[in-house]
């Protein structure tokens, strides 16, 4: 009789232990998911045509918020940043998304005789840029700037429909929310966003950096 009671009590304790462990796992998973969504990854909606054809109106992207805090921004990155002031009109939100063209200290100029832009004297191939029909220029306006310390030069991929650093100046690195790395919605648009590293990694650092 006592053996049966002991066996039953052991099974009961084992069952409660399983339920307790399962509850701990579920709670830990929920906390981890919350922390990831809150501090590491966020979803953003694309409201404008400025990044076409890389990003279309209505797309949703995931943004890695470890950039630039723990992971440095690189040329070619697609980044979300808070409006430094005056970029957006009333009722258009607080965040923008553009591609990083120049890092602090870089000299960025456009356009060369073949219509391309140069960074630190190196012409860059930009296959993602939407050109004006009949033109080979990646920008409708010429510019030659040195990016200030602590700032980035950013431009939209749809250059002729993008209000970016050409109109508003450079963006403080501190205003960067994170790097967009994948399109998640709609499902038919799912893709990993490329920074075109083969082209951008060939750009030399400016001597003053």
Automatic annotation (TrEMBL):
Q: According to Swiss-Prot or TrEMBL, what is its membrane topology?
A: Single-pass type II membrane protein
Keyword Hydrolase part of the UniProt annotation = yes
What chemistry does it catalyse, as a reaction equation?
Cleavage of hydrophobic, N-terminal signal or leader sequences from secreted and periplasmic proteins
| Domain Peptidase S26 span(s) in chain numbering | 21-185
Q: Does the keyword Transferase apply?
A: no
* Listed GO CC annotations: plasma membrane
Organism name: Curtobacterium luteum
Record-linked Pfam families? Peptidase_S26
Q: Where is the catalytic site?
A: 50, 98
What is the protein name for this chain? Signal peptidase I
Residues crossing the lipid bilayer are: 22-41
Which keywords annotate this record? Hydrolase, Membrane, Protease, Transmembrane, Transmembrane helix
């Amino acid at each position: 009789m006592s053996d049966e009671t002991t066996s039953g009590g052991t099974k009961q304790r084992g069952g409660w232990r399983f339920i307790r462990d399962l509850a701990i796992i579920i709670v830990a998973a929920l906390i981890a998911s919350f922390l990831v969504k809150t501090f590491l990854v966020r979803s953003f909606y694309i409201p404008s045509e400025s990044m076409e054809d890389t990003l279309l109106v209505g797309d949703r992207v995931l943004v890695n918020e470890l950039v630039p805090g723990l992971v440095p921004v690189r040329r070619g990155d697609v980044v979300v940043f808070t409006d430094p002031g005056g970029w957006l009109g009333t009722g258009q939100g607080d965040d923008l998304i553009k591609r990083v063209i120049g890092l602090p200290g870089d000299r960025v100029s456009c356009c060369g005789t073949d219509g391309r832009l140069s960074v630190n004297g190196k012409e860059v191939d930009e296959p993602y840029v939407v050109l004006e029909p009949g033109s080979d220029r990646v920008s409708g306006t010429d510019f030659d700037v040195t990016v200030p310390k602590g700032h980035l030069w950013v431009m939209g991929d749809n250059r002729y429909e993008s209000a970016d650093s050409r109109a508003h100046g450079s963006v403080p690195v501190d205003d960067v929310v994170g790097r967009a790395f994948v399109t998640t919605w709609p499902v038919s648009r799912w893709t990993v966003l490329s920074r075109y590293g083969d082209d951008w990694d060939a750009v030399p650092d400016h001597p003053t950096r």
